[in-house]
Amino acid sequence: MALKKLILSSFLLAMTTYHVAAQEMSFEEYNPKATLVVPENPIERARFPFIDVHSHQRDMSASGLTKLVEDMDKLNEAVMVNLSGGSGTGLKEKIESIKNNYPNRFVVFANVDFDGVGKSGWTENAVAQLEADIKVGAKGLKVYKSLGLRNTDSDGKRLAIDDPRLDPIWAKCGELGVPVLIHAADPKSFWDSMDADNERWLELKTHSRRKRSDTDPAPWQQIIDEQHRMFRKHPKTKFINAHMGWYANNLGKLSQLLDEIPNMSVGIAAVIAELGRQPKNAKAFFVTYQDRILFGKDSWQPSEFPTYFRVLETDDEYFPYYKKYHAFWAMYGLDLPDDVLKKVYYKNALNLIPGLDRSLFPND
Fold this sequence. Notes:
TIM Barrel, 8 strands, 3-stranded parallel β-sheet, alpha/beta, 364 residues, 13 helices
């Protein structure tokens, strides 16, 4: 009898511990499966061949390119734009490998190291190197978020995006007819208080190094405004504002900026979660600005592309995003018309990036 009481007591204690643990589950752990049953139309391959204007690849060797093409073909990706081209010898080697292996499937953008602006001859040397990089085959300039966040001038001061010492670089891109794809700052929530009102709380909790303040290194709005002033100052240069300029969650404001800055287009890389939670509003935006939106993904994870396709192509309801810490909400499809899809997938990129092989795309 004593043994039975001991076993029963142990069982009850275990069950109590289990229920308490379940009730005390953290938000990070809580990730329920939806019980909602709705029509599903998952898409593994884009309806039309597309150009990914926002990718980062280090390995441009023959074997690396072959592996990429295998994955690209499954997705219906016609052209990949590698924004991590670098400059000088390294960039030239990437371009040579592309020419020798898959000359019509890849292009690279050059990069500029902005640290040290203000040193004697810095601007002239940077412009000369950029011009040389374009001459050997780079199709544009990619500017990392380090400009505005981490780059410093020769006096150790934060380098503003609209620093006049950089004007010759933007002007040279306009003169050469190549676009500038620029990533400025990060989502505004990274600068906001990390409290119960912050939509990015989970991301900041799990990626604490992303949290910033108005003094680290400057207020979010200041950095964003620097970028827009620079765009306005160089109307002959074509700018692709990466991540929709972090205004995908405020398409009214982004519409205003597009109206005010006609030389600015936007890429949708890494912000599909914002678009997928406002399908009616986002669809209207895409229709209105269909000539100025470009497809991009950013991180190279082929398994994540289908979520982009599904948001853009279907009218599906309430389907999951692939990273809970980015979006704990569900996605909805925009069901874009084919003529708009074609522009987003490839036509707009063909108009902005010189030298792409148009034979890879439908002739209509």
